[in-house]
Specification:
Strand content: 5-15%
Structural class: mainly alpha
Mean pLDDT: 93
Number of domains: 1
Largest sheet: 3 strands, parallel
Number of helices: 12
Radius of gyration: 17 Å
Bound molecules: zinc ion
C-alpha cells in the first residue's frame, strides 16, 4: 500500500487551495503512456505521455477480466507482445519511495488492484450513479464519443456486469511489483499524492499538462479516455465496453486511493 503523508491532504477546496482547471497539452502516442496519477517525474518526454489507469495496465487488466483470464505475468507479457506488434507503445510507472522491501511498486492502480476490483463489484449502485452524473453533465460530448446509437445506461450496466462476474480470488494473485514489471515501467514519479480533482479527457490527441500543474504545486488525476478507445479499437476489442469499464475502474480507484484514506470524494470533471 502506498503511504500518503497527511500534510499533502490538500484536496478540500478552499480559497488557499482552489481546485485546478484542466491545462491541455499535445499528447504524443509514440511516447509510452503513463498513469492517471497526478504526480510528475521530471523527465522531458513525460509532458506528452497519455494517461490511463496504470498506463498500459488499463487495457491489459480489462482484457484479462473480459476474457476470464488470470492477471499474471504470462498474460501480461503475452498482451504486451500483441500491443507491440500493433505498434502500440507500452508503459507504466513506479515512484521514488523505497518499496524495495515490500510487494508494492508505487503505482496505486497496480498495488491495489484487488481492492479496486472488489470495490467495483461491491459498490455497483454508487459507481453507476456517479457515472450517470458525469454523463448527464455532458450528454452531447459522451454521445459523440460513444456513438449516437449507443444506449449509455445499457452499456454501463453490461460493462459493470462483466467486471462483477470476474472471479478475483481465483484470477488475481500477483503483487503490484510483479504486475508492473511486465509493462517495463519507464517513469519514476516523485513525492506524494495531493490530487484535488479527477479529470476525464475525451479530446483526441490531448492530455493534461501534469508538469505545469505540479510546478504550480497542484495535482489532478486524469484519464485520457480517447486513448483507451483508440488502443482497444486497434486491438479489435469492444472499444465502448473497454471505455466504460475504464471509467468504472477509475471511479473505484479514486474510492480506494482517496475516500478509503478518509478524504472527501474528488469532483469528476470531463474535458471535451
Ligand atoms: Zn510510493
Ligand atoms: Zn499508477
Amino acid at each position: 500500500m502506498s503511504k500518503i503523508p497527511s500534510q499533502l491532504h490538500n484536496n478540500q477546496q478552499s480559497p488557499e487551495h482552489p481546485i485546478p482547471k484542466f491545462i491541455e497539452t499535445e499528447c504524443n502516442i509514440k511516447t509510452p503512456p503513463t498513469c492517471v496519477d497526478g504526480r510528475n517525474c521530471g523527465i522531458d518526454g513525460y509532458l506528452k505521455a497519455g494517461q490511463m489507469l496504470g498506463g498500459s495496465l488499463n487495457i491489459i487488466i480489462l482484457k484479462a477480466i473480459n476474457e476470464g483470464k488470470q492477471i499474471d505475468k504470462e498474460f501480461i507479457s503475452k498482451t504486451v507482445a500483441q500491443m507491440k506488434k500493433l505498434e502500440i507503445k507500452v508503459g507504466g510507472h513506479t515512484d521514488d519511495h523505497d518499496h524495495s522491501e515490500g510487494v508494492a511498486c508505487g503505482c496505486g492502480f497496480a498495488d491495489n488492484i484487488i481492492t479496486i476490483l472488489q470495490r467495483a463489484q461491491q459498490q455497483k449502485d454508487e459507481i453507476i450513479n456517479r457515472i450517470k452524473n458525469v454523463y448527464s453533465n455532458n450528454p452531447t460530448a459522451y454521445d459523440n464519443f460513444f456513438g449516437e446509437d449507443i444506449n449509455v445506461s445499457e452499456l454501463l450496466s453490461n460493462s459493470l456486469n462483466k467486471i462483477i462476474s470476474y472471479n478475483i480470488s481465483e484470477n488475481v494473485n500477483s503483487t503490484g511489483k510483479q504486475i508492473v514489471e511486465k509493462v517495463n515501467p519507464q517513469y519514476k514519479l516523485k513525492g506524494n499524492h495531493g490530487e484535488q480533482i479527477a479529470f476525464i479527457n475525451l479530446k483526441q490527441g490531448k492530455t493534461l499538462n501534469v508538469v505545469t500543474l505540479n510546478n504550480r504545486k497542484k495535482q489532478a488525476f486524469n484519464l485520457d479516455l480517447w486513448m483507451v478507445k483508440n488502443q482497444a479499437t486497434k486491438m479489435r476489442l469492444n472499444a465502448n465496453i473497454y471505455v466504460m469499464q475504464s471509467l468504472i475502474l477509475y471511479v473505484a480507484t479514486e474510492i480506494v486511493l482517496v475516500e478509503d484514506k478518509g478524504q472527501m470524494a474528488l469532483p469528476l470533471v470531463t474535458n471535451s
